[in-house]
Design brief:
The strands form 2 sheets. Strands 4, 5, 6, 7, 8, 9, 10, 11, 12, 13 and 14 form an 11-stranded mixed sheet that branches. The radius of gyration is 23 Å and the shape is globular. By secondary structure, it is α/β, with parallel strands linked by helices. Residues about 1-20 have low confidence and may be disordered. The protein contains 14 helices and 14 strands. The chain binds iron/sulfur cluster (2 copies).
């Protein structure tokens, strides 16, 4: 039986079928398709494939794999387990464990990560972290340094010295160096923008939408709004060569996301992305199951507009959709949601390593410190215990190698409350991927 149809554009992934835990079927106006979970491959399938897969699934994953193997669709497993800790080539420096805003949902507890007093990283800690990072990366490799907080520009001297030091060392060692910053932009000045542009930073500005909504969610410590301050400071950033993204934390108060998305695009951001508030300091600002359903509806409305515009050839920089399509086209398959504890670590103001920037000071994800070095045994334990194939209910979820099991920080703090939302979003993205591939075959080139 021939089940694979050949797509008109050879650069696309093969499209065929799939099933309950090893594959997932879906329909579009272009036919029936399936995601093959291992390797995230998308296929065209005959209409009866879903029933055959469902029948096999009732007998268990081995029967599903048997069906896939019988059709020549089962290769070597794409996911390694256990994972050996890779070289750490990315650090996030918490140069400022302090913030001038008081966002109610902040994972960093207003920048201080639960500490009694705000802290700034001193130059010696920053220099040693950069030295450590670049000592591990071989010539010809790449490394990245991210600045997050708190608000990193509250410690701009150390941020700049660390950047210059890393750029110099990387050039001497033949390492390609990338920089990024996530900022609330309230203290950013023209000189900062020029510095960030000179070092080709990826810049993400945290902003929560229109003035009233943003000011309610991201007030200053004095209680005033921060929207006007941010917008007044965007000019030099957006007028430079930098790619500047807006990141919006979606709370239950966001009920008109498409208008909010287009408001942020109109401000001039090169891309705009949404991040659901799942684990908030103020529980009223984290999304419930019902609110996540409503969010999915709103996200799909934004995605449908994205699709309409892309098919017409107009840009619509909705980064959640851009990222989903890119990952599907690449065939991304991963056993973890991100690089936390793998190639990426956070560094606290006092020089402690943690799995990522959100786990500063959190013993659940401590990974050594600058005095004693990176704790590779802790990383190994982390990678083994966080592997999606060892997590329930992830190990039998069709979305496992696209999702990776969800942000560790959110899952450890709140549990897996967003699974239906994640699967609903991926299901929509899969169908959109096929539709765009059919209508704009040049889009993925
Ligand atoms: S976190 Fe939820 S959606 Fe993601 S792999 Fe696990 S079960 Fe699936
Ligand atoms: S654990 Fe969560 S916050 Fe940390 S890097 Fe991963 S996705 Fe991001």
């Amino acid at each position: 039986m021939s089940v694979i149809s050949i797509l008109p554009v050879a650069t696309f992934q093969r499209r065929t079928f799939s099933g309950p835990t090893e594959a997932r079927c879906f329909d579009t106006e272009h036919g029936t398709h399936a995601l093959l979970v291992d390797g995230s491959r998308v296929y065209d399938v005959p209409a009866d494939f879903e029933s055959r897969l469902n029948e096999a699934a009732q007998r268990g994953p081995a029967a599903e794999r048997g069906l896939l193997a019988s059709l020549g669709l089962l290769g070597d497993p794409a996911i390694d387990a256990p994972l050996a800790p890779p070289v750490v080539n990315a650090l996030a420096l918490a140069v400022s464990e302090h913030c001038n805003l008081a966002c109610g949902y902040c994972y960093a507890d207003g920048g201080s990560f639960g500490a009694n007093a705000p802290k700034h990283m001193n130059w010696d800690v920053a220099r040693r972290a950069v030295d450590d990072l670049l000592a591990r990366v071989p010539a010809g490799g790449s490394a990245s340094l991210a600045f997050l907080g708190g608000e990193p520009l509250l410690n701009r001297d150390v941020l700049r010295r660390a950047t210059l030091h890393a750029a110099t060392l990387a050039a001497e060692r033949g390492v390609s160096m990338r920089f990024s910053i996530t900022t609330n932009a309230t203290v950013l000045n023209a000189d900062d923008a020029a510095f960030l542009a000179q070092h080709a930073f990826n810049v993400t500005v945290s902003i929560d939408g229109e003035r009233e909504l943003h000011d309610a969610l991201r007030p200053t410590r004095g209680g005033g709004g921060s929207y006007e301050r941010i917008v007044a400071r965007l000019g030099p950033l957006l007028g430079s060569d930098l790619r500047v993204s807006a990141r919006l934390t979606v709370t239950p108060r966001h009920t008109a996301l498409r208008a909010t998305l287009e408001h942020l695009m109109a401000l001039g951001f090169h891309s705009v992305g949404f991040s659901p508030s799942l684990s908030s300091r103020d529980p009223a600002l984290q999304l419930s199951a019902g609110e996540l359903d409503a969010l999915l509806t709103q996200m799909i409305e934004c995605a449908n507009e994205f699709e309409r515009r892309i098919v017409k050839g107009d840009p619509y920089p909705f980064s959640n959709m851009l990222a989903a399509l890119q990952e599907l086209h690449r065939g991304t398959h991963r056993p973890l949601p991100c690089g936390a504890g793998a190639g990426y670590l956070g560094v606290s103001a006092d020089g402690a390593y943690s799995a990522c920037h959100r786990f500063v000071g959190d013993p659940r994800a401590a990974m050594g410190d600058l005095d004693h070095g990176i704790d590779d045994a802790a990383r190994e334990r982390w990678l083994a215990s966080r592997h999606v194939d060892t997590q329930e209910p992830c190990r039998s979820c069709w979305a496992r190698y696209l999702c990776g099991g969800g942000c560790h920080h959110e899952v450890l703090n709140r549990g897996r409350v967003a699974c239906d939302f994640i699967r609903g979003w991926l299901a929509h993205a899969l169908a959109a991927y096929v539709r765009i591939a059919e209508q704009r075959p040049d889009y993925f080139r």
